[in-house]
Structures are given as structure tokens and as C-alpha cells.
Amino acid sequence: MGEPLETRAAQAEEVIDRLSEEYPDPEISLNFSNRLELLIAVVLSAQCTDERVNKVTAELFEKYDGAEAYANADVEELASDIDSITYYNNKAGYIHDACETIIAEHDGEVPDTMSELTDLPGVGRKTANVVLQHGHDITEGIVVDTHVQRLSRRLGITEAERPAKIERDLMDGIVPEEHWQNYTHWLISHGRDTCTARNPDCAECVLEDVCPSSKLDSDVDLADGEAW
């Protein structure tokens, strides 16, 4: 039996209080100058580091200007432009097809609803949430990336395993709506700096005394089973 909702909500509140002090100015780490660039960057970021994506898009955004440029591009050439990105062939196809849809169905503009965004090729709820939050200033959900998935479970905030279920769990009385956007950025920052997937630095963690997965208190192998 898992912890009751009230306990997990209190844990989330404590985590938010501490990480908001540790990271007072959370922000997205992908580089972009408009909504289409944001959409493309997020699609490219799936199972790839933001650092790598930013290196690739620095040249990509210079070469392709607007949805028509991507829609008219040769997919093989587009793939070669992003070939240092994981799954670059698939992602090139997604970007090309998504831009065709944006032109045909949305007058060349990136849509601003969850349903329209997730209808685009290669765009799931996580990507749509990022585009809504940072492109349209609409917070409809919580972005659950690998860091949010890992840390929310390690910290005992949720026992759900899959991103969609984790998001629903967090939104259902655990993370206050006013923190939905920053919750993601706080956990990403903490996941990169301290609570890494394989070697979490529990001794230097600001959450160590409230973390049920602390290595200082148990012999739990935090890396076990984590290929997120």
C-alpha cells in the first residue's frame, strides 16, 4: 500500500520549498527564438541531451526559416543535418510531416491546444506541454521527462511508473497548479546537478533528510532498473 495523498502532497510541498530556494530562477535550457523552433527543439530533445540539441539547432535554425522550409526540405538532407541527434532519421520525418500539417491545417502557425499539438507527427503530451508553457504561456499539465520521472519516484511523491500516469498523479492534489511549470525545471536542475540516475550525490543533497531513497540511510541500489 502506498503513502496516502496527504502525505505525498506534504512531501511535494517540502521538495518544492527547498528546490525553489536552491534554484530560484528555473528556466528551459533549450535555445529557440519562436514557437516553431521550440517545437523542433523539443522533438529533437527526446532521449538526447539539451546541450547536444542546442549545438545542432544553432546551425539548423540558420538553414531552415519557417514551416515551409522544413516542409519543402528533402527528408534525407534534413536527417543529415541532424545526424548527431538520437533517432535522427525518425525525427527528420516527424519535423517534415509536422510542418506540412502546420501549413495545411494551421495557416503556418504552431497550434495552441493540447489536442491539436498531439495530432502533429512526433508530438506527444510531454512535447505539447513544453510548447504550450514556453511558446503560448499556457500551463495545462506537468512536463514529465526522465528527471521528473526518476526524482518524483525516488522522493516518494508518486509510485506511478509511466510518464502519463505520473503526470495525472502529480496534478491530482499533489503538486499545486501554480507550481506545475517550475516543478519540472526544479527537478531537472536537481537531477542534473545532484540526483543523477546512476550516482546520486546524497551527501550533498538538500533533500537528503526527507528522501526515502537516500543512500546514506540504506543499501538500496538507486540505479537498479533505471534506464530512463
UniProtKB/TrEMBL annotation:
Keywords: 4Fe-4S, DNA damage, DNA repair, DNA-binding, Endonuclease, Glycosidase, Hydrolase, Iron, Iron-sulfur, Lyase, Metal-binding, Nuclease
Domain HhH-GPD: 44-193
The keyword DNA-binding is annotated on this UniProt entry: yes
Cofactor(s) listed: [4Fe-4S] cluster
Entry note: cofactor: Binds 1 [4Fe-4S] cluster.
UniProt: [4Fe-4S] cluster binding residues: C195, C202, C205, C211
EC number(s) given by UniProt: 4.2.99.18
Keyword Cell division attached: no
Family in the record: Belongs to the Nth/MutY family.
Role played: DNA repair enzyme that has both DNA N-glycosylase activity and AP-lyase activity. The DNA N-glycosylase activity releases various damaged pyrimidines from DNA by cleaving the N-glycosidic bond, leaving an AP (apurinic/apyrimidinic) site. The AP-lyase activity cleaves the phosphodiester bond 3' to the AP site by a beta-elimination, leaving a 3'-terminal unsaturated sugar and a product with a terminal 5'-phosphate.
Name of this protein: Endonuclease III
Organism of this sequence: Halarchaeum grantii
